[in-house]
Model the fold of this input.
Amino acid sequence: MQFGIFTGNFDNISQMQAVVQKGGIIDGMSDTIDYVLEKTEANGILPTTIARTIRTGKNTLLNNVANNIENEFNKQIKSAERLQRYSNNWKECFNNKDFEGMTNQIYKMRVELKELVPMENTIKEARTIENLHNLIKNNGKDFNLSTEQQELAKVLV
Done:
């Protein structure tokens, strides 16, 4: 996740949120740098002017990182909205038996899918859990599920 701070590549939205939320990685990095600067300055290792310059640069850098992540959030939302619109357009073309229109929408969808944070595995896991829960509930709250039932819960995602 720390690598994602600098590259902008995150595995999921939770990682992005952890970077920008209060007490998250950005705040932790800021506090650590401040602590090191205070100690080195107090011990005479670093002159005050240099420590002040480093603090100013640190604040600028971390604010820039937070702004970039905020922009990425906005980009993700817009991309998801476009993906939904293209999906609806594809369904309309399908109903009209317009294969060329469907193909056009598929190309647009592929572009958006490349832009979105990969959440597919998270969604699949949540659906599997939901299926397992329903199996247990419908089985009289009996947790003794067969291997086939457990596998079925994964397949019906």
In short: Residues 48-95 form the longest helix (48 residues).
